[in-house]
Each structure stands twice: as C-alpha cells, then as structure tokens.
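QA checklist item 7 of 12: single-chain prediction sanity check.
[x] sequence parsed
[x] length recorded as 119
[x] structure emitted
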Amino acid sequence: VQLQASGGGLVQPGGSLRLSCAASSGNTFTMNSMHWYRQNPEKSRDLVAAVGRGESTWYEDSVRGRFTASIDYVKKTAYLEMKNLRPEDTAVYYCNVAVNGTTWSGRFWGRGTLVTVSS
C-alpha cells in the first residue's frame, strides 16, 4: 500500500490547511483507520489525531477543537482539516493507515508533508 500525502505549506497564524493522504495498491484492500502524527527535528513523532470506522475520532489536547480528521472510504483518502493554526503546530505531518486485504492486514506510513505556521 502506498500513501501519497499532500496539502502542507506555509500559512500565517490563525490560518487553515487541509492535509490529504491517499492510499493505493495493486491489491484489493479496505481502510480501517488513519492516524496523523507530527514531528519536529530531534523530537519524537507524536500522535495528534486519529479517525476510524463509524467516524470515531481522537485528538490530542492541543489540537482538539481546531483539527478535524475524516476518511472517504470510497476514494481511500483521509483528510486532516486544520484551522486556527499556531506557530507550535509547525512540524512534518505523517499519515499512518491501517488496512485489511483479502488475506492480510497491515499499517503503512506516508512520507510526510511539512506544515509551517509563521508570520
């Protein structure tokens, strides 16, 4: 399974961005959940949001109310809508998808997309 992440960029404080993470494979699969992480240099990769079946969601305290995670199961694409961005949201954002195939399952990482919040 390959993940194509996009949507990062430079935005001013208070601005918005929408990250996308599209999954594809030559094998049949279904998406079960998507986890979004972020990482700054020399720091750990931290979970900030997750979304699963039934639109169940989880958010880290600092992003709750500002970030919204969702999945389009038909398009096999997950989204992270980020509003009211703050300088401390600056990081490389990674998506991690959990999938099921016909006889297999696994988790896969996207390459990461840089979000910079600065005036």
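[x] summary fact logged: The mean pLDDT is 94.
[ ] second reviewer sign-off
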